[in-house]
Design brief:
about 120 residues; mainly alpha; Cytochrome Bc1 Complex, Chain D, domain 2; about 0% strand; globular
């Protein structure tokens, strides 16, 4: 009986993670990113349309932090993966507060962003 109870708790504890891993990149973007990164701009963060291959801090009219503007980063898939895993470690002084700890979620979002949205 105790074993069944423990297994039940483990299944419940892992359920949100399993469900999140099945989300597509567009769904993850909508859930985790679109609140700040509106496709047409005007959000708290810059538009991410066309971000893959773009220099960091380069969207005209957006007020980037000095750290982002000075980073010299070009947003490759590898750089986006590193940044989304830990923005403050990748670019100290960034205003980006959200990270995606799960590598599968990062890969899905980056694949979605690579489509140019």
């Amino acid at each position: 009986m105790k074993t069944a109870w423990i297994i039940g708790l483990l299944v419940l504890a892992s359920a949100p993670r399993v469900l999140a891993q099945t989300q597509s990149g567009s769904e993850l973007f909508e859930d985790r990113c679109s609140g700040c990164h509106a496709p047409a701009g005007g959000g708290q963060g810059p538009s991410l349309a066309g971000v893959v291959g773009r220099k960091a801090g380069a969207v005209a009219g957006f007020d980037y932090t000095a750290a982002m503007k000075a980073s010299g980063i070009v947003w490759t898939s590898a750089n986006l993966d590193q940044f989304l895993a830990d923005p403050a470690k990748t670019i100290p002084g960034t205003a980006m507060p959200v990270h995606l700890a799960d590598p599968a979620q990062r890969a899905a979002v980056i694949s979605y962003l690579a489509t140019g949205r």
